Each structure stands twice: as structure tokens, then as C-alpha cells.
């Protein structure tokens, strides 16, 4: 296990954001995006061992997100959250 | 086909909401995608003409934003991900000893047991799976009392404990046990001196909840544990609202027995655990007889998927505790300051500092709680008649704090959690301010208050 290059890290980060945005569920989507941003910021300047660990975890999270996007969207409620309606 | 399907969707769920949308858009390709992503995205821009859903006579424009995290929490996607294989391929009975189906799920259960144990600093052998905190509380209170009944006949709990603790105590009272229901101070926290004075020669158990479900105050667990240990009395705590949210260590706090619930920490409903200390040993009489699972303390086939989900929820809670805490503290502050900076006569119930910040229980003086709840229909929250929401009885917890019925009735509990967003809190602040102001403007009482007639105010500002 070695630390990711900056390009690898950035590409994983972008992939995670892209996938997270596909959640139709308002709260799950916003949480996924928030945590992705927070953790990538947190590990940006981490030492090699920590960065490697975070990268492995990030890749697992990405795979998990892909599965859960499928599952959540399959059973998504058709009535939108009030947070997604224009405020009148 | 697309049109027929769409018409069905429209009629079924959306009523006249999209009346303004042009047929051209409706008939378009996007309308018939299977997962619905495309058409939903497009239709959000449409301004609803009328409320699309009507539930229990209330018209809602959409699914309310959820601020009721003490009632229950959503299942975390990481939890669901861990559970799925045990609802599909791995369906075996964890107690089957003769084949792979049993072995593979037994392993999963032992991993989950360790995940729960790690979160509370215990040995996995001390974790017994149950259906939830209600069952755990029943086992702890009735089970311990029954085991030691030849020598002991007294139990202590508090007036603000959960209904299932209080009702278990009532049941024992019928069997001849003496119960002390300790009062709490105005801030919702017990007085340790009163607890000490209440302990008798024949006291077997002190049961004090960790974090209160209605007002969020944290009881001094470590001090209570120390006191109980020194007086050789068992200490049980209902930690349904605490585990996964605040740091709990059963050894450090001298906890002998503890109840945990899965669905309060982003796990599934119908699963929980009771921690039962092995050294010094706590003995209990099982409340469920049968196959002798869970070391004889709780018979019945374990629900593998729920157990695995509960374990995953504990693991995630441990990993996310710092991040959750930071997020929740920030939103909690934003909610409290947002509301109190814009309207006066709003009081927080329970101690300001010794609390779990994800629970913000506010009393809005001079408004009627039920009217306020109706006004806030776009927010899912609970009122001062919280837990037993079916009744309009004022909350016994707020009463125990010395609040009068009016304060209890005008209180609202906002529950913030891992999945709450900043935008939701901002919206909640706006709506609360708007509706409290509106209701007060309609109230003759408020007019009197504004004129300086303070007979009511004197009573209400005694905080
Ligand atoms: C403090 C407390 N104890 C017990 C319970 C009951 O938990 P469960 O739903 O797991 O039985 C709850 C939740 O309603 C609670 O808040």
C-alpha cells in the first residue's frame, strides 16, 4: 500500500463527488458530498501512511456509494423533499 | 405507454401539482426513464399549483425536512450496505452448527458483537443482543430484581427516565418492590446527594438514563457509577440516546448494565443490546425463555441482518464521532442562535452545557404548541407531549423540571443529526420565527405582554 499521487487522489475525489451527486435522496446526497469534501481536505497534507490508508478507504467508499446509489434510487419516494421544492 | 404510466404517477402521487407543465415536456423522452432521475430533475422547477400530498387531513407540499432524530434516525447507507448480503444469499440460522449457512452468519454476528463492544469499551462476551432498548431496559430492571429478590427489595430511578424504565418499575412495585423515583433539578440533572441519601441497605439497582430523549441533558454517569460501586449497588443506564453520540466507556464509568438501541444511531429498528458486566458479575433472570441463545439471557433466533447492521452502525459511529460532533454542534448553535436572536421569550429546556447538542428543546412562551406544530408542517419535529405523541398530555419530563403545563405545551424538540444539512436548519429557523411571530400577533395574551402587563411573564421567566 503506497500513498496516492496528487492526480490519483484528485481523480478519486472527483469520482466520489460525481457518484454521490446521483443520490436522489436529499439528505444522503448532501451528506455524501459533505463528507467527501471534508475527508479529502483532512488528508490533503497527511503523511504517506495516513494518506495511503485514506486512499484505500476512499476507494471502498466509492464502490459502496455506487451500490447504494443504485439501491436508494430504485426505492426512492416519488414525492420530493420540501428542501428540493422552490420556496414560495 | 409512457403517457399512461405517467398519468398513473400523476394521479397517484402528484395530484394537480404539475398542472402548468406543457404536454410537450410530459411526453418527452425524459418522462419515461426507469429510475425517474431525469423527469424528477426537470419537474422540480415547476411551481406547485396545489399541495401534492394529503396525509391525515394535512396538505403537504413535499416530504417535510426531518428534525426528529431522537425519535429515530435514518439508516446510514454504510449500514444498509453491510446488511444486504444477509437478506439475500446468507440467510442461514446463526445457531445452526452443522453447515456453512450457519457458520458464515455466526461469524458475522460475532464481528458485530465486537463492533458494539468496541464502541462502549467492553468485552464482546458482555454484549447481549435484544430487540431494542425497551427490551433491554425490561431485562435489566426486572431481570436483576428477580434474581436478587430474596435479599433486596428496593430500586432507584429518576422521574425523567424513559417510559419503559418507569413502567418496568411500576410492574415491580405491584410485586411488592419499593421504588424511589428521584426528582431532578430545574436543569434536568439529578442531585448526587439526593441519590446518595436514597440508597438503602436493601437497594439492588440504580437506573439512571444517560442522555434524556426529550431534553438532551447528560446525567453525571461517572459520578453515579462511582457512588453505586462504593455502595455495592448495581448501576444500570438507559443509553439509547447516548451510545454513538457521546463517548461512553463502561469501565471508566463503572456501568454494570446498559441498554442500547440500533435505530437511534443510524442502524435498523428492532435491534439493540444490553451490556451485562461479568466482573463483578451481574446476574439476571431471563425474561424470554427458549433455546438458550445469548448465554441464556435472551432466547430466540438472532435476526442476522439487523445484528450486522447494528454492528456496522456502531463501527461507523465510532469512526464518525468527531466529525458528527463537530457538524451537529455547529448546526445546533446555528438553530438556537438563529431563533433566539430573532424572537424573544424563547427558552431552552434542560441544562445549557451538560447536554447532547443534537437535541434542542425550546419553549416558545405565549404560543400554543399544537398550533405551532401545525404551522410547522414542513418540519418533522416533536412537541412537549413528545414520546407519547398520541396523547396531548404535557410531557412528564418537562413537568419534572418544574415547568408548568403551558410551557410544556409550547415546547418543541428539534433533533439534529448526521444527515441534517445547514440549509435545513436555516429553513427551520425561518419557519419557526415566521410562525411564532404570526401566532403571537393573533394572541391577546401577547398583546398584554407587549403592553407590559407581566403577570404571566413573571412566572414564565423563572429560568
Ligand atoms: C431513552 C430511550 N430509551 C428507550 C427507548 C426505546 O428504544 P427502542 O425503540 O429500541 O425499544 C427510546 C426510544 O424511544 C429512548 O429514547
UniProtKB/TrEMBL annotation, chain A:
InterPro entries: Complex1_LYR_dom (IPR008011), Complex1_LYR_LYRM4 (IPR045297). This is Complex 1 LYR protein domain-containing protein. It comes from the Eukaryota. Residues 8-63 form the Complex 1 LYR protein domain. Transmembrane segments: none annotated. Pfam families: Complex1_LYR. GO terms for biological process: iron-sulfur cluster assembly. Coiled coil: none annotated.
Automatic annotation (TrEMBL), chain B:
GO terms for biological process: [2Fe-2S] cluster assembly. Belongs to the class-V pyridoxal-phosphate-dependent aminotransferase family. NifS/IscS subfamily. It is an enzyme of class 2 (transferase). The keyword Iron-sulfur applies. Residues 66-427 form the Aminotransferase class V domain. Its EC number is 2.8.1.7. It comes from the Eukaryota. Its cofactor is pyridoxal 5'-phosphate. Keywords: Iron, Iron-sulfur, Metal-binding, Pyridoxal phosphate, Transferase. It holds the Pfam family Aminotran_5. GO terms for molecular function: cysteine desulfurase activity; iron-sulfur cluster binding; metal ion binding; pyridoxal phosphate binding. InterPro entries: Aminotrans_V_dom (IPR000192), Aminotrans_V_PyrdxlP_BS (IPR020578), Cys_deSase_IscS (IPR010240), Cysteine_dSase (IPR016454), PyrdxlP-dep_Trfase (IPR015424), PyrdxlP-dep_Trfase_major (IPR015421), PyrdxlP-dep_Trfase_small (IPR015422). The keyword DNA-binding does not apply. GO terms for cellular component: L-cysteine desulfurase complex; mitochondrion. This is cysteine desulfurase.
